[in-house]
Design brief:
The complex is a heterotrimer of chains A (298), B (276) and C (373). Chain B has a single domain, classed as MetI-like (MetI-like fold, Orthogonal Bundle), CATH 1.10.3720.10. Chain B is mainly α and 276 residues long. Helix content of chain B is 78%, strand content 0%. In chain B, helix 4 packs across helix 6. Chain C has 16 helices and 10 strands. In chain C, helix 4 links the parallel strand 1 and strand 2. In chain C, strands 1, 2, 3, 4, 5, 6, 7, 8, 9 and 10 form a 10-stranded mixed β-sheet that branches. With 373 residues, chain C is of the alpha/beta class. Classes of the chains: A mainly alpha (298), B mainly alpha (276), C alpha/beta (373). Chains in contact: A-B, A-C, B-C. The interface between B and C is large, with 49 and 54 residues.
């Protein structure tokens, strides 16, 4: 190979590099971060799930399928169904309550809209433990709600709000709503006004416009909202423990306990792998049936 | 014809009324726990379980600075949250655009990886990261907590911003390039402004997630300092105390004031621009 | 990686300088950052019998030790005590098994995990001659022989039954009374497999730390009935105070709060158990393997084991305490608290390490809580 050839090749390489630069600059950091801090730990989790629980609760690096055999116990099927049900309820409520909310904010002038968003976020910068405790203080038998109802003579003896399903739902929905509102807001905000006007001018009534124009165009935001609400509520346990009285275990509790008091890391890891598989399956089914190829979810 | 118009307007006004009412109720629900928190920060009880009378002693205790552990924890949490927000939003913006625009071999894989921190319970990822960090002899402390936080903030940022980007971004960018702008100019002057609401949402979500995180902050902490949420969760064994409520109230007041100042400055600047 | 941390730290310093907020706090942060990096050299010096450590890092519960006593210790020894907080006993175990010696000099844990921690080699063996106050003051029933070489007890807690004598429909004299159908929805209970199962096992007449699956299964069936009477698990003392529930299986510390809260109208009584023992749990300090400031750790342990120091601490944090001399020196208010005075205090059992049987407990605990309702 001659000197000139090498020079030429170097130039070619540099040229290619240059055209790749924006891609590297944009997709690079996220890719590197995900590989370093997600893929590697994830591989480690999968690896642990095939290992054995040590006599002192640590991990013994000896291959075993024990954890996955444990998963065959129908109890985990029940737990996952229960968790899915809670997550589904939370997501549906968040979407129903959050969409009009996001829509309203998005239709305000930008300055006002950003102030409203700020106003929405501020409560969430307080600690969630304190917020949950506040709900308990508010609804407890000697709390303000019961006192008011008693004073008004509407009830004879205090109502037990604590540890009931509606209160748990209230805690979950109010905790998760911003994760639904924010992505939907940013997607609705983009919806051009003239498009809606055009639709109205063409004689479509508001409900048709909503179904045929608004909803499809804001679908990406809705999908983001579903992902950001459904998946985290699948693994939640603090709200159900505090407001629900800890009588029911969810998949989040069980995994937490494996990495906590029970110290069965292989089982905890296997449960996480199961959770990953279920979520991947759900996302796959969703993209299949909703035919939202444009969204490139996963 | 006239009649129809007024009828429509009346309907419109009624709709507007209900919309405003709805928004008002929603905000009321969001702020209810905050109000309760503020009220109980004046509660004269060692444990915040029931009302025992009015006091300002929690504030007095905080502002005497006789013990700064709560303040230290708050400042530590704020520093981490701000840094995590900046890092996650920057990486998230770039990543969302990059993953939308370019085709490369590992793209599908990276797209999948982004969902992992949202799906896998935080404790699992935290334990795995802890073991890896210890194995590779990485010094624990602010840096490790920050890495942990960004790892779950980035996916939220990417997902939120991705929901904002779609086909017509390309058209705009192409137009800008055709008009002679270079890539960087196009990026800062065209791409970013069009996705700005998405960026803002991503930043808010990241900050919210980071400022309230316990699991990563707990597992990946160094030996010298805990974040505020970890400290509060630790209190949960014996019951929350009033000073925590007081500190959170102070934090909220500061945030509201800075928000007001910020929007006042923005308005003044906008007016000046309009005049010029 | 290290570079990244450095950048992170630099950014923080810059950010805090720019923000100019809370001068003292941010300054402390940069200092401790610098101190962290010099920790290794400090440890090396110390090994050669050089200077004393200037920093002590403790991992424990928050709001569990008197701040003024800690600052006195700091003054006496010209050092800084840093606290990092845990939110669950299991946190400490996770830290210790991952290798906590780099970060912490003292870690708080509970007796139930000690055997595993010792056998796993995660702890430093203590030189008891360096904590003479503990040798002198500590009640040896609680500072158990089998774990004495590796830990020093700090505070302790009983899990007993307490009820409101005005509203509770029955008198409770043993765990089996908790199954009475009249108590439906009346019980607030501690949670966790290793807190609940021993009670059922005792009620059935078995060893509270049984590893026999058949016995555990029987205990599970007992707990199913118990579960029907439980209103909520977790911290439930506020419900006992406001009358939502009438019985509580809880820690003595929480009971003390509830009794104080009711003041003169206190109608809460500790159930007069006739033969069933109650569980006694220990909060202990251990030194993790390879801890860097062991000299200060010993000084701190000896300081906190001093009768007068601990007595002051008990006035601020009134919990049961294994330090007999400190209890004797504590205030009357502490000594006379009804929450700590019951006549079967010696009829106790400890939570022991059950090894692999823990997974059996977990299995039945899951069944208990999943199949309920």
């Amino acid at each position: 190979m001659t000197e000139g050839h090498i020079q030429e090749q170097k130039k070619e390489k540099a040229r290619r590099k240059k055209s790749r630069l924006p891609m590297l600059a944009q997709a690079g950091p996220v890719s590197i971060w995900m590989i370093l801090f997600v893929t590697i730990p994830l591989l480690f989790i999968i690896y642990i799930s095939f290992m054995t629980r040590g006599p002192f609760g640590g991990v013994v690096y000896k291959f075993s399928l024990d954890s996955y055999k444990t998963l065959l116990d129908p109890i985990y099927f029940t737990v996952i169904l229960k968790s899915l049900r809670v997550a589904l309820f939370t997501t549906v409520l968040c979407l129903l309550l959050g969409y009009p909310f996001a829509y309203y904010i998005a239709k305000q002038p930008p300055e006002r809209a950003s102030r409203l968003i700020m106003l929405l976020m501020i409560p969430f910068w307080t600690n969630s433990m304190i917020r949950l405790n506040s709900w308990m203080l508010f609804f407890q038998t000697a709390g303000p709600v019961n006192n008011l109802l008693l004073k008004l003579g509407l009830i004879q003896k205090p109502i037990m709000f604590l540890y009931t399903d509606p209160l748990v739902m209230l805690g979950l929905v109010t905790g998760m709503l911003p994760f639904a509102v924010l992505p939907m807001y940013s997607s609705i905000e983009k919806l051009q006004k003239n498009l809606l006007e055009a639709s109205a001018d063409l004689g479509a009534n508001p409900s048709v416009t909503f179904r045929k124009v608004t909803l499809p165009l804001t679908m990406p935001g809705i999908v983001s909202a579903i992902i950001l609400v459904f998946i985290p509520s699948l693994g939640t346990y603090t709200v159900t423990d505090m407001l629900g009285g800890g009588k029911v275990l969810y998949i989040g509790n069980i995994i937490k306990n494996q990495f906590g008091s029970i110290r069965n890391w292989p089982l905890g890891a296997a449960l996480s792998v199961l959770l990953l598989a279920i979520t991947a399956l759900l996302i796959f089914l969703y993209t299949r049936f909703a035919r939202v190829d444009e969204l490139e979810v996963v | 014809m006239e009649q129809v118009k007024t009828k429509r307007q009346g309907k419109h006004r009624l709709g507007h009324f209900f919309a405003t009412l709805y928004i008002f109720i929603m905000y009321a629900v969001f702020y209810l726990p905050v109000v309760v928190m503020v009220v109980y920060s004046f509660n004269d009880a060692r444990k915040n379980y029931s009302w025992m009378g009015f006091t300002t002693r929690w504030y007095a205790k905080l502002f005497s600075f006789s013990n700064t552990s709560l303040w230290d924890a708050l400042i530590y949490s704020l520093i981490i949250a701000v840094l995590a927000t900046v890092i996650s939003t920057v990486i998230g913006v770039l990543g969302a655009i990059g993953l939308k625009k370019f085709e490369f071999k590992a793209k599908k894989f990276i797209n999948m990886m982004i969902y992992v921190p949202i799906i896998v319970p935080e404790i699992v990822l935290a334990v795995a990261t802890l073991i890896l960090f210890v194995t590779f002899g990485i010094q624990m402390g602010l840096g490790s907590i920050l890495i942990g936080h960004c790892t779950f903030c980035i996916p939220y940022a990417v997902v939120t911003i991705k929901g904002r980007i779609s086909g017509d971004n390309d058209t705009l960018e192409e137009a800008s390039m055709d008009l002679g702008a270079n890539r960087l100019q196009t990026f800062t002057k065209v791409t970013i402004p069009t996705i700005m609401p998405g960026v803002m949402s991503a930043a808010f979500l990241s900050f919210t997630l980071s400022i309230d995180d316990v699991v990563m902050s707990n597992m990946l902490a160094g030996g010298s300092q805990s974040t505020l949420p970890v400290m509060i969760l630790s209190l949960n064994r014996t019951g929350l105390t009033g000073d925590v409520n007081a500190l959170t109230t102070i934090m909220i007041v500061i945030m509201v004031i800075s928000m007001l100042i910020y929007s006042a400055i923005r308005r003044r600047m906008a007016r000046k621009e309009a005049q010029a | 990686m290290k570079k990244m941390m450095a950048i992170g730290l630099a950014a923080v310093t810059a950010a805090s300088l720019l923000a100019g907020c809370g001068g003292s706090g941010s300054a402390a942060k940069t200092e401790s950052g610098a101190a962290e990096t010099s920790a290794e050299t400090a440890a090396a010096e110390q090994a050669e019998g050089g200077e004393a450590s200037k920093e002590l890092n403790i991992y424990m519960w928050s709001d569990d030790i008197s701040e003024s006593l800690v600052s006195e210790f700091e003054k006496e020894n010209d050092c800084k005590v840093n606290f990092t907080y845990m939110s669950d006993n299991a946190d400490a175990i996770n830290q210790l098994t991952a290798g906590a010696g780099d970060k912490y000099d003292l870690v708080m844990t509970c007796d139930a995990y000690m055997e595993s921690l010792i056998k796993g080699g995660y702890l430093e063996k203590l030189d008891l001659s360096k904590i003479p106050n503990a040798e002198k003051n500590m009640n040896k029933t609680y500072w158990r022989e089998d774990i004495r070489d590796y830990c020093m007890p700090y505070l302790m807690n009983y899990i007993y039954v307490v009820y409101n004598k005005d509203t509770c429909p029955i008198e409770i004299k043993g765990y089996n009374d908790l199954l009475d159908p009249q108590l439906k929805g009346q019980i607030g209970s501690v949670d966790g497999a290793r807190n609940l199962f021993p009670i059922a096992l005792v009620a059935l007449g078995y060893d509270p730390n049984s590893t026999d699956e058949n016995e555990i299964k029987e205990a599970y069936e007992w707990l199913q009935k118990y579960n029907e009477n439980v209103a909520a698990y977790g911290s439930t003392e506020q419900n006992l105070v406001n009358g939502t529930i009438s019985v509580m299986l809880a820690y003595d510390g929480n009971t003390k709060w509830a009794m104080d809260q009711m003041g003169d109208k206190n109608s809460l009584v500790i159930a007069p158990f006739e033969k069933d023992p109650v569980q006694l749990g220990m909060d202990l300090y251990v030194i993790p393997k390879g801890a860097k400031h062991q000299d200060l750790a010993y000084k701190f342990l000896d300081y906190i084991a001093d009768a007068d120091v601990m007595a002051k601490n008990l006035d601020e944090y009134p919990y049961s305490c294994p330090n007999d001399a400190a209890v004797a020196a504590a205030s009357d208010d502490y000594k006379n608290s009804p929450a700590f005075n019951f006549d079967y205090k010696d009829n106790i059992f400890f939570q022991e390490d059950v090894g692999d049987a823990l997974t059996i407990y977990d299995k039945y605990y899951q069944m208990l809580k999943v199949n309920a309702q």
